[in-house]
Amino acid sequence: MTTPVAFALGRPVFLCGGIMTTADTAGAPSVGDIRKSYLEQVGRRRLYSGLALLLFVVLMVSGFNVADDRNAGGFWEGLHQIGDYPSEVLAEAWEKRADLPGLIAKFFPALVETINIAAVSTIIGAAGGLILSLLGTRGLAKWPSLIPVFRRFSDILRAIPEIVIALVLIFILGGGPVPAMIAIALHTAGALAKMFSEVAENADLKPVEGLASTGATWTQRMMLGVLPQVAPNYVSYTLLRFEINIRASAILGFVGAGGLGYELRNAMAWGPGRFDEAAAIFILLFGTIVFFDQVSSSYRNRLTEGQAQ
Question: Which residues, by range, are in coiled-coil regions (predicted)?
Fold first, then answer.
């Protein structure tokens, strides 16, 4: 406990741990001043937050009005019809429910094609993302001066949507699974390069420095000093990306890239009479996504936490 023992120059002197100190509060802010300053800061922050929220609402409303005016049909006029199409699909699928198992078997090869597109594009994209991440990570890059180049290249790859790349490739190569595979692989490489780089930046550099002292090459330092540390997170992110790529490969089928999405587009384009096929494809796609979500989530939890959740 600090106790006053004397007065020096009109100020109390305290003994604290054997050291003589004097209490000098001249010029120190009072509790009222601190409270006032804090409330002013809170008020400014709330004002800025309110202005930002107001600006966001204005932009959203104006953007919606512009989009609604340019739309072929008004949003509010067609809102009451939003459930018509799903109800027609479900009604026809229920009437022909006996045919659903046969239709599911019919479209199963297209599902396999979709999964193959996602798997191959994920493997190629993960390999590209691995190389880009190591070349663009500070402390690990082989050419440090080129780090901004590799990072900007990764930004470009993930900034362009898969469907845009696929449309360009379909125009050049024609329809089929190859344009979809290339498009998804390029986007995957850019996305995984960003996530892999963030993981690699937290890697311990002591093994890398030790390997460098023995004369190991850059590739050997990365393979033996870095990858063993980051491999669980890398595999986890790759599995997560595989789930995303299954959905992407199905979507790209709508633009002629093959797979289950192509069959779904045809079934929906024909309209009534083939809604049972659309329902069968929806069932296949939904079941596949749920299955791979559960399997990859289990493996990701084992890799990152050491147990299945």
Answer: none
